[in-house]
Amino acid sequence: MTRQLSTTDRTTVRRGSAKARTERSDLHAILDAGLICHLGLLVDDSPRVLPTGYGRSGDTLYVHGSTGARSLREAAGGVEVCVTVTHLDGIVYARSLFHHSVNYRSAMIHGRARDVVDADEKWRALRVITDQLAPGSWEHARQPNKRELAATAVLAVDLAEAAVKIRTGGPSDDVEDVEADKAWAGVLPLRTQWGAPEPSADLPPKFEVPPHVTEREYPA
Amino acid sequence: MTRQLSTTDRTTVRRGSAKARTERSDLHAILDAGLICHLGLLVDDSPRVLPTGYGRSGDTLYVHGSTGARSLREAAGGVEVCVTVTHLDGIVYARSLFHHSVNYRSAMIHGRARDVVDADEKWRALRVITDQLAPGSWEHARQPNKRELAATAVLAVDLAEAAVKIRTGGPSDDVEDVEADKAWAGVLPLRTQWGAPEPSADLPPKFEVPPHVTEREYPA
Question: Looking at this predicted complex, what is its ipTM?
Fold first, then answer.
């Protein structure tokens, strides 16, 4: 199997093409470092963009939600979706406002959502979604029972068609602005990290915070 | 003018309705605390979800981009768009996987994009977009010239129809799981902050990092 992402009209990056990546490993890395995606689909002929958790298994992306959620029901019908995961890494201050930019990593996946009905696949999908959002919880917390499984919808999207873009580094200023030497230029990085765990108010005080929470790293 | 958000079929939050907010001030606060939005629209009948910067002026949201960008040209034609801004505040660990959740603030705005052609409005829009992404840069850096303005497209979306959701606090576990006392429960907060400024390699060493960068707070 090729490790290159397929190139289609809508995944060919036309603007700032120096930022486009075509390695499947870049796509996987961006997805694996994320916590939520933005799922785009049509509901009543209008675009809708939903923030939601997800997980990846090989070249399949899974999202889940309540079977009662209208948007998920729509998506389960095999409609076209677009799933975008974005990491904002910093603000790029240039000498001109025009060249101000951001450093980021983004993956935009196009595909049709498939309703996951096979019990084994659904179980595995819930596991990878859990491992993405709360690694260690699959082993630590109570696993889903039949009623909970029935109330949960899982959708799959093949990672076949995706546009991956990465911007790193400092500003790309015009020569005249660099020579004018009138403004500061550089990057203000954005850092995300976990805070101190906050035990639930109804937890017995004896309950120590388990290692999969205390030792969690960002990104995983 | 009412301070309540309009309620339409698609902005009536049906799932987890306890999280829905209808105060316009909540919408404004979520937008003002963000750096990027996810803009959803149809391109060639397929949904597309684009991460991009934005700014707010009163009850108008502005986004900008290159006039050469296909997606922006499509959106400028008055098509329906959905703009979502999401802040992920923490992971909610419950005793059951089913009740695992996330704390977040999200705003989902529905509307038609309007191409901003009036020169004064375009200038003001670029200013609020700059103030959102890089406050202080409007005064510090070189402002756009005619050529740069012509190469920049600005779109406006009225903040008339929006769904705002906020989840805070600990897990909502089933009584049996709390009584079983077998798993830790609580919240692992997510914190975002600015790192140390990284001056551009071609910046003269004498150039001190200006206060609008060194003193920038997160969120603004």
Answer: 0.94
